[in-house]
Amino acid sequence: MEAIKFNDDEKARLVAKLQRYFSEELKQSIGRFDAEFMLDFLSEELGAYYYNRGVADAQAVLAARVDDLTDAMWQLERPTEFKR
Q1: Three-state helix/strand/coil letters over 42-61
Q2: 44 CB contacts (<8 Å, ≥6 apart)?
Q3: String of b and e for 2-25 (b: at least 16 CB within 10 Å)?
Q4: How does pLDDT run along the chain (84 residues), one tens digit per residue?
Q5: What distance in Å separates the CA atoms of residue 19 and residue 28, rounded to the nearest whole number?
Q6: Per-residue confidence (pLDDT) for residue 26, from 0 to 100
Q7: Whole-angstrom Cα distance, residue 59 to residue 57?
Q8: How far apart are CA 2 and CA 45, in angstroms?
Q9: At what angle do helices 32-76 and 8-25 cross, to 10 degrees?
Q10: Are the beta carbons of 4 and 49 closer than 8 angstroms?
Q11: Do 26 and 67 form a contact (C-beta atoms < 8 A)?
Q12: Domain parsing of the chain, residue ranges
């Protein structure tokens, strides 16, 4: 899997969220450099777990849709003397 990368605007928004979290929840100030460092760490160390969960969720949705389509196709079938 390739490394998770964000463009400059996305990274700036994520860094701002980290800074806001530290300020509001931890009552600590964190600079941009430290926030970027933390974002990189979280992306490298935890990102794959969240990514894999998203892939598994997408697979489950797709499997459910395929099951629905399969059921709909069976409902179109007409009775004949042939067995399945």
Answers
A1: HHHHHHHHHHHHHHHHHHHH
A2: 3, 4
A3: eeeeeeeeebeebbeebbeebeee
A4: 677 789 999 999 999 999 999 999 999 999 999 999 999 999 999 999 999 999 999 999 999 999 999 999 988 988 888 876
A5: 9
A6: 97
A7: 5
A8: 13
A9: 110
A10: no
A11: no
A12: 8-76
What six digits make up the tokens of 84?
């399945």
Q: Long-range contacts: 7-14, Cβ < 8 Å, 24+?
A: 11/36, 11/39, 14/39
Task: Take residue 64 and report the two structure tokens written for it.
Answer: 């459910």
What tokens were used for 45?
């160390």
Joined tokens for residue 39: 């974002």
Residue with tokens 């530290």: 22
